Backbone:
């Protein structure tokens, strides 16, 4: 009898192992009660469903399906939740890979846990340089598990935002006759925002002749990332005489900005980074006051960055009822991971890492190639992002439009993503500054 | 710049004063440090959001939200606070638990997305050269009217006399025939009504989200302590000082505007070096 029970137990165990062996478990990490985390999950869900519907992934003659594990990091709030969630996903839910993440402060800790357990973590949502710089290059053996799929690192985001700011400043020069536009920086107090603020602070006052912006910085305001009102900051910016406000927001304070800026009709044009302004619900969240807000973005209505951009946006929008945020880049992350697994023809971590390092994949946001830091290559041939502005109730792209990345060396290189339209100075800003 | 600080400071003062007065009343009369006070303010903001978004007329939405907050608040007082009222540490923990519970309940029903309540008045007005939203003026008027109403109740009615008597000396008031427990419950309701009105007033101005109660709690505690524990006048003045300190930081130290609350609290600590009992508080020796 005992031997029969043992045999049965062994059979059940063997069957269970075989079943779990047919599944690749992927932990999707994000603040799941916030829109950023929801889009992490939804992007990954879409990719997993597509891959599974196409028959899964065949590795070494065995076919695997993808199973997603929701890892709620609650990383908008400070605290230990993020680390605990990732550790639980690895040890209890037995995930094979991790994708997602959002707040740099939390990601620094979560990626340490992933590296402790030697799990590949495809970052899809956090921009700070320090997540990879100083880690992968300085201690490759420990941090080789980390790759960034979206967004571009902070300095490249700053670069894109810098180019967009320059274009808006040119508009002020040409349309309003303001030779030296005054700029205010309004940036949430968060780790990822600091290098962007530093970079721009240096560039704004630098003359155009030396590659600067030829403007005048009138001040930098750093409200809390969880501030619920920005009226004092905005009236201070108005008082400082700013004509353009450069925003650096990743969290809910971006909504606060849009609402207070539009409601009080502060006479400054907005450009910069505002993750909440990438969301379909932006106008509702701001009570309709967020019109003309602009941000560096990834997705916008009708803009075709690559052949897969529009189909993905349409599919995401029809399935979930809203435009994808950049955190829905978990969609690309899953495809990039599967592409690497297929090329490696193995699930062995080191083999997959080698394959990931050799990635050259056309994603929904551009061509993904990883540099020596395991970070995205940025530029006209790779990923640049887009500039998005809310016009007539819709997020439309205003950049890259007739962008000349290097007018001196490559005068004929002009980049325009199909579907882009010109940036519009908000009417109340135009009225305020016209003729002054 | 002075005009900017004055105008913005006044708006913040109104909101903080409403919260601080309600909190101070409850502490002054019932000796209850109700850490859930601003959580009710948060629930009121969600209440007005819910009723406004489901098509209720604004006056009815305000009435329902206010009555709901007072009813829930008094029930919490009777069920959670009153049984442990004599044990201060237990009251602190119990009311903090209520606050967290309210936040989690709101999270379940409304999620974490920032919500917006449409303003009663759109547009803005230039006041001494400073751009002030018309909704901010509505909020300031609501705050002033609420504070005048509270002052009238406290200083011109028999109930107010009983409240003030209980605030000065619970035992003596009891000996004089005042039902101190009833008065405390009434004050709890009154305090929460002020919290509800503050929540309703700021909902169109601030982002409505489950964590919106935490920062005001710190400010209100600081205002009450700065003004002197138990002193209603002190609570109001403390609130005004902290509001102006916050706004001044934004204008004078823009790069450190995230430190606005920290700097306001630093001012409070500095005041304690000069008057440890707060601006209008009685010293510990006098209390004894």
Residues:
């Amino acid at each position: 009898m005992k031997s029969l029970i043992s045999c049965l137990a062994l059979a059940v165990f063997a069957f269970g192992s075989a079943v779990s062996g047919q599944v690749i478990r992927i932990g999707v990490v994000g603040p799941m009660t916030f829109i950023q985390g929801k889009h992490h999950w939804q992007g990954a869900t879409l990719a997993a469903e597509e891959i599974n519907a196409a028959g899964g992934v065949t590795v070494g003659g065995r076919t695997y399906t993808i199973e997603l594990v929701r890892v709620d990091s609650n990383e908008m709030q400070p605290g230990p939740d993020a680390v605990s969630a990732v550790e639980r996903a690895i040890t209890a839910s037995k995930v094979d890979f991790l994708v997602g993440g959002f707040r740099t402060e939390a990601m620094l800790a979560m990626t340490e846990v992933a590296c402790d357990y030697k799990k590949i973590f495809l970052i899809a949502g956090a921009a700070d340089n320090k997540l990879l710089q100083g880690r992968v290059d300085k201690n490759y053996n420990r941090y080789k598990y980390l790759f960034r799929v979206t967004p571009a690192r902070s300095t490249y985001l700053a670069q894109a935002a810098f180019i967009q700011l320059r274009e808006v400043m040119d508009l002020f020069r040409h349309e309003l006759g303001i030779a030296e536009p005054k700029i205010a920086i309004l940036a949430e107090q968060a780790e990822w925002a600091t290098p962007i603020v530093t970079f721009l602070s240096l560039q704004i006052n630098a003359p155009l002749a030396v590659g600067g912006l030829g403007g005048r910085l009138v001040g930098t305001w750093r409200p809390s990332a969880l501030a619920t009102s920005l009226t004092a900051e905005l009236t201070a910016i108005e008082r400082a005489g700013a004509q353009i406000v450069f925003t650096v927001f990743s969290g809910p304070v971006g909504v606060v900005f849009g609402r207070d800026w539009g409601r009080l009709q502060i006479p400054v044009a907005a450009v910069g980074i505002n993750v909440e302004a990438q969301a379909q619900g932006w106008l509702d969240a701001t009570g309709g006051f967020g019109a003309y807000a602009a941000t560096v973005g990834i997705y916008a209505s009708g803009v075709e960055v690559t052949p897969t951009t529009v189909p993905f946006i349409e599919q995401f929008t029809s399935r979930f009822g809203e435009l994808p945020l950049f955190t829905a880049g978990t969609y690309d992350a899953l495809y990039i991971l599967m592409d690497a697994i297929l090329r490696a023809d193995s699930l062995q971590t080191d083999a997959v890492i080698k394959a990931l390092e050799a990635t050259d994949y056309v994603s929904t946001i551009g061509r993904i190639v990883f540099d020596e830091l395991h970070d995205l290559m940025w530029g006209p041939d790779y990923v640049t992002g887009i500039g998005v502005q809310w016009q007539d109730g819709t997020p439309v792209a205003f950049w890259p439009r007739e962008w000349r990345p290097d007018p001196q060396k490559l005068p004929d290189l002009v980049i325009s993503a199909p579907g882009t339209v010109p940036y519009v100075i908000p009417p109340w800003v135009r009225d305020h500054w016209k003729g002054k | 710049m002075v005009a900017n600080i004055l105008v913005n400071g006044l708006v913040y003062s109104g909101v903080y004063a409403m919260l601080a007065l309600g909190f101070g009343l409850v502490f002054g009369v019932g000796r209850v440090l109700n850490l859930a006070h601003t959580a009710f303010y948060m629930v009121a903001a969600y209440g007005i959001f819910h009723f406004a978004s489901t098509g209720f007329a604004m006056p009815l939405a305000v009435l329902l939200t206010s009555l709901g907050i007072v009813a829930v608040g008094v029930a919490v007082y009777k069920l959670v606070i009153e049984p442990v009222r004599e044990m201060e540490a237990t009251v602190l923990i119990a009311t903090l638990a209520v606050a967290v519970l309210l936040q989690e309940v709101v999270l379940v029903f409304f999620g974490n997305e920032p919500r917006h309540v449409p303003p009663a008045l759109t547009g803005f007005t230039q006041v001494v050269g400073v751009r002030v939203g018309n909704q901010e003026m509505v909020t300031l008027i609501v705050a002033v009217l609420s504070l005048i109403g509270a002052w009238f109740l406290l200083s011109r009615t028999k109930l107010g006399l009983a409240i003030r008597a209980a605030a000065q000396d619970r035992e003596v008031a009891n000996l004089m025939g005042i039902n101190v427990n009833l008065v405390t419950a009434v004050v709890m309701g009154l305090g929460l009504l002020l919290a509800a009105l503050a929540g309703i007033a700021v909902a169109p101005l601030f982002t409505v989200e489950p964590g919106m109660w935490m920062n005001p709690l710190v400010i209100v505690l600081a205002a009450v302590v700065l003004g002197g524990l138990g002193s209603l006048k002190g609570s109001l003045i403390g609130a005004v000082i902290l509001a102006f300190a916050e706004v001044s930081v934004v204008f004078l130290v823009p790069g450190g505007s995230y430190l606005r609350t920290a700097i306001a609290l630093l001012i409070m600590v500095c005041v304690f070096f000069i008057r440890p009992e707060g601006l209008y508080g009685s010293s510990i020796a006098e209390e004894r």
Notes: The first helix of chain A runs from residue 2 to 21. The domain at 155-297+400-433 of chain A is CATH 3.40.50.2300 (Rossmann fold). Residues 94 and 215 of chain A are 53 Å apart (CA to CA).
